[in-house]
């Protein structure tokens, strides 16, 4: 449970002030009261909230004892899938993504958020969808991207046959019970995975996770 002082702060973020008030600024991102309001019950999380939260996960991964995490922007996959590696090759300028343990790819499918996770230690690509849809083609698109990125940046050929691609089934991961929690599910899938923890939450935890995320984003600190 969140402490009373935290609860008061969260309520204030929702209730008082102007939509354009800046409530948090970090990672070259600015989060306004209007952005934070998407974390209200049944709100639909926007790109700013998703990208800010992914950045918090990356920041935490720099600490001792966590897997090294790289997160792509929510705009990455739509760009990649509609163009080619060439169009997104500058997105990793100065970064060797292969030096990380886990790569998070939050995906925006028109009106639904999903998550793709590359585990470079295990050579797996897994797709997490809280509505239970399969994303095999998305896994393949990202594997092809990794092959081209590896060749271009490190001059190393990836062996596709060594990789396991898998869309998580409804019996493997929790599922949302409404039409609006997909973004929170993606953030929490990413949170648990980036700590190497089993995914044990359920749809019942969503109202709590939403409020907790408000505090975490405002304080730029994961609880």
UniProtKB/TrEMBL annotation:
Superkingdom: Eukaryota
Keywords, sorted A to Z: Hydrolase, Protease, Thiol protease
GO molecular function: deSUMOylase activity
InterPro entries: Papain-like_cys_pep_sf (IPR038765), Peptidase_C48_C (IPR003653)
One Gene Ontology cellular component annotation held by this UniProt entry: nucleus
Pfam family, one: Peptidase_C48
Annotated GO biological process: protein desumoylation; proteolysis; regulation of macromolecule metabolic process; regulation of primary metabolic process
Residues annotated as domain Ubiquitin-like protease family profile: 29-193
Keyword Hydrolase among UniProt keywords: yes
Similarity field: Belongs to the peptidase C48 family.
Record's protein name: SENP2 protease
Source organism of this protein record: Platysteira castanea
């Amino acid at each position: 449970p969140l402490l009373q002082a935290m609860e008061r702060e969260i309520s204030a973020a929702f209730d008082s002030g102007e939509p354009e008030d800046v409530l948090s600024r970090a990672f070259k991102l600015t989060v306004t009261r209007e952005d934070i309001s998407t974390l209200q019950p049944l709100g639909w999380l926007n790109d700013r909230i998703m990208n800010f939260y992914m950045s918090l996960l990356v920041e935490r991964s720099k600490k001792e004892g966590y897997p090294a995490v790289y997160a792509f922007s929510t705009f990455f996959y739509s760009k990649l899938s509609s163009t080619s590696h060439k169009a997104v090759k500058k997105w990793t300028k100065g970064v060797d993504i292969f030096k990380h343990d886990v790569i998070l790819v939050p995906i925006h499918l028109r009106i639904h958020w999903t998550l793709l996770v590359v585990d470079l230690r295990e050579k797996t690509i897994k797709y997490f969808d809280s509505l239970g849809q399969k994303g095999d083609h998305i896994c393949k698109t990202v594997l092809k991207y990794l092959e081209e990125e590896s060749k271009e940046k490190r001059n190393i050929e990836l062996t596709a046959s060594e990789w396991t691609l898998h869309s998580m089934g409804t019996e493997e991961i929790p599922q949302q019970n409404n039409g609006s929690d997909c973004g929170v599910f993606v953030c929490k899938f990413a949170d648990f995975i980036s700590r190497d923890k089993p995914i044990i939450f359920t749809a019942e935890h969503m109202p709590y996770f939403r409020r907790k995320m408000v505090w975490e984003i405002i304080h730029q600190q994961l609880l």
